[in-house]
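ok trying again, last paste got cut off:
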Amino acid sequence: MEHANYWDEFEYSKLKLLLNDKKVNSILALRNGMKKMDEQFPISVELHLTDRCNLHCEWCTDRELRKNGATLQPEIIEELLCEFGTHGTGVTLEGGGEPTLHPHFRQAVEAGEKHHVDMGLISNGTTDISDCVGRLKWIRVSLDSSTEEEYKREKGVDCFGRVLKNLEKMAGARNPRETFVGVGYVLTTRNQGNLMGLVRELDHMGVDYIYLRPVEEAGNITPSLDSLLNLRRQLAELTEKTRIKYMLTIADRVIDKNAGLPCIAHSLTSIIHANGEVALCEKRRNDSIILGNVYEKSFAEIWRSPYREQVSQKLLHADCQGGCSACRITGFNMILHQLENVHTKHFI
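nice, full thing came through this time. structure:
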């Protein structure tokens, strides 16, 4: 029996700001000089469980992190999830490596459920975790290939069939009204040989969506803007007749340096690395900002520290966004900028 597709959750993701009015008002108060920083917890946090990985993606942007070989300790994970549960912060389990390789992965998922944390997962799908999908709000499997040959070239191993099998098991094991299952796809010039066929196959499996984005920092295999626009036309035509939906990120290719805006939306999210470091943002390649380490202080102490206040003030200057590119937070900054400049806000 077919079930409804809840793609609106993803297609209109920025509308979620309406459900977090206190957070939005706090950010705007920072921008208007009414406070020094937005002290409210992030809406969501990216939690890196481990830097270990069983794949060898040529274009991996986390290659430097993987050199650490770090793995977050179970007691730290428990403490963090307790904090996030208290503050209503969602948690995406992901990593510089593959989160399901953490020796206590299932324990971490159970801890999130215990502390009433909404959790998502970004995985390479090589591990069968169909037994715990019901504890997650969503799962996105990074496939990045449309054929077995492409997978071996892009990922360096021969796991295409296994990943598809695990993906199908996850889609079949979940309640589709409570857990979304999707596919992540990093587009290169060499992994689109059977992309339309793959989308049809994923649709048959019951996968909800495929999220495509151009490869970062690999100019020699980055698709052209024209090819991306053509691909979008093909996907739009195909998905008119399928249950599965698609999202293709193109704006990041044409909007750079945070659109010249102050980064007031940085506090919507945060990243915790497997070595315990709390990073402001993964995209600041030229100016990496580490706010603290959860092995030394609680997340609350780090998030509300004088140093983070100093950083928040720094990011109010648009010229501090040099080096920022392909950032999903830019879209939120643009929306908040528009809200800030609405002259007739008391009229509908």
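cool. The first helix runs from residue 8 to 11. The radius of gyration is 20 Å.
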